[in-house]
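Title: Prediction job returns without error message
Component: structure pipeline
Severity: low
Priority: P3
Assignee: unassigned

Description:
Job completed but the reporter wants confirmation the result is attached to the right record. Sequence as submitted:
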Amino acid sequence: MKEKIKENLITIDELSETSGVKLKQLSSYVRQGLLNYKRQAKDGTRYYDKGKALLRIREIKRLEKEGFTSKQLKDYFPRSIFEIIEELEE
């Protein structure tokens, strides 16, 4: 079971290689709350759900081609749980 779970999780470097999107751009998506990691290891490595992340990246790229701005992208996708928690802590 653990092996199956591991197969579905990839690092941002692997995500960059698989999706063809530069690491810097993916990091920007993460900072903007457009791309969320599923799990974080003790060493700080973040793991992304491969299928969901690839679908999200594909959708982001499509919307960017249609002319969506960063703000419009943030409004288009639901807020991440981290943004909600941050808001509540203020």
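Comment from assignee: result matches the submitted record. Residues 63 and 69 are 9 Å apart (CA to CA).
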